[in-house]
Amino acid sequence: MELLNKSLRELHRLIKKKEVKPSEVLRELLNRIDETEDKLNAYITVSREKAEKKAKLADEELVKLSEDEVPELFGIPLSIKDNINVENVRMTCGSKILKDFVSPYDATVIKRLRGKGAIFVGKNNLDEFAMGSSTETSFFGPTRNPWDLERVPGGSSGGSAASVSARSAIASLGSDTGGSIRQPASFCGVVGLKPTYGRVSRYGLTAFASSLDQIGPITKSVEDAAYLLNVIAGQDSKDATSAKVPVPNFLEALNGEVKGLKAGLPREYFVEGVEPEVKEAVLNAVKELEKLGVEVVEVSLPNTKYAVETYYIIAPAEASSNLGRFDGVRYTYRAKDYKDLIDMYKKTRAEGFGDEVKRRIMIGTYTLSAGYYDAYYLKAQKVRTLIYQGFQSVFKEVDFLITPVSPETAFKIGEKSSDPIKMYLSDIFTIAVNLAGLPAISVPCGFDSKGLPIGLQVIGKAFDEETVLKVADAVEKSLSLSLIPSV
Fold first, then answer.
1. Is the pLDDT of residue 426 over 90?
2. Does the residue 56 lie in any domain?
3. d(CA 95, CA 106)
């Protein structure tokens, strides 16, 4: 476990100084996966042979390189959420309809990580097509939380968060459409960064809701999140939504200098319904920031109360369109018995999709249908603009916002499965960030009385990941929590 507890920067230093071989790091990681997978189910696919072959080649190449020639992620094994394409590796999106699909290409983020020498150890479990807040809707079974195996790890990037927390992954990439990086990071006691929409290319990410999805890192520390963001950020000609904005060195932002910054506490995020222990942990972390010289004021974001309803019109509408391609014709699961083409479509999608995905497709198709488009989808887009404008107005007064990530800590497996509305409300504090396209991070800030981790959310201005990371790093260092579960 010694190597698996080290940061990405520490591993890079050990490898480039030839004190540790890539194959040694991988061997320790594969052993840890073997120890934990029966309990956690954090991976859908472990690319053992491919990773071992790459690590062996890295060992041989390392001998020929000087210290300065060793790339930042050389020989370091990473895991990837299983809705991001990795060439010649199965990519299922946690769904029966894609259970045998092998990707023919690399996503842009994967190309960038490969370019820095990373090795890919496997694909993490997720809610089917990233639609969920608990990683219970996966065709491959639920992932369990390493802090309490009877509880969910959050979702939809639950496999990534659980594996990083349990040290069966050194770091991972997830995707965040309404909180799917931040909420599982909070539940599992790790760091999860959702970058600004457009900061990271979405090319090769299987689309759920194209105007909301964003790829980001899930890591053991804020430093590791900055380290990975340095590699994956930047414009991509293959993604028309990626922004042509400069990419700073995010690690340089982690200088501890938060004195003089102004934080906003939105009153709408500290209301009745938030577990008292969650509120207390977040406010205790705020006091730590005040000691470091941060000015804290209360602010208001009145339109965020409409965020959940707005999201569950826009996201399903985009999902119903994006998932139309999975029809059994080209590269997905196909029903065996059918009368004609239309019957094949119906039976394939009925058998291939799980209940939650079907629910969202039906909601989305309804809201886009003739006679309802203006009443639902168009109105939701107008409310989305109001939510965005609310954030813009508040950011004229403050540098960043602090909120809970979730109103609660990890709930028990099955506790919310029969009530979709209860499940949807798990993301009540994260959804507005996606609607506004802003950067936000979850950083651990304490534990409840059951010993479960609590996450604090830092929300920043568009393309100001530097402030978000700086503040999260200050919280992390001032609290110095021990975040290794007993699994």
1. no
2. yes
3. 20
What's the domain count of the chain? Answer: 1
The DSSP secondary structure of 75-137, one letter per residue, reads T-EEEEETTB--TTSB--TT-GGGTT-B-SS--HHHHHHHHTT-EEEEEE--SGGG--SSS-S
Parent domain of 466: 3-264+398-479
Cα torsion angle, 323, 162, 5, 453, sign: positive
In eight-state DSSP terms, residue 251 is G
pTM over 0.90: yes
Output phi, psi for 66, to 5 deg.
-80, 165
Name the amino acid, one letter, at 424: Y
Which CATH number fits the domain that encloses residue 217?
3.90.1300.10
Single out the residue of 74, 181, 73 nearest to residue 124, CA to CA.
181
Percent of the chain with pLDDT over 70: 100
- Cis, peptide link before residue 156, omega less than 30° from 0: yes
Q: How far apart are CA 396 and CA 392, in angstroms?
A: 7
Instruction: Evaluate whether residue 382 is within a structural domain.
Output: no
Tens digit of each residue's pLDDT (9 = 90 or more) over 300-337: 999 999 999 999 999 999 999 999 999 999 888 999 99
Structural contact between residues 124 and 159, judged by C-beta atoms closer than 8 angstroms: yes
187 and 159 in contact (C-beta within 8 Å)? no
Whether residue 326 is contained in a domain is answered as no
Q: Is residue 342 part of a domain?
A: no
pLDDT digits (tens, 9 = 90+) for 118-165: 999 999 999 999 999 999 999 999 999 999 999 999 999 999 999 999
DSSP-derived letter for residue 228 is H
Distance of alpha carbon 309 from alpha carbon 295, whole angstroms: 33
**How far is it, in rounded angstroms, from Cα 487 to Cα 480?**
21
**Which residues are catalytically annotated?**
81, 156, 180
* Placement of tokens 């490898």 in the chain: 15
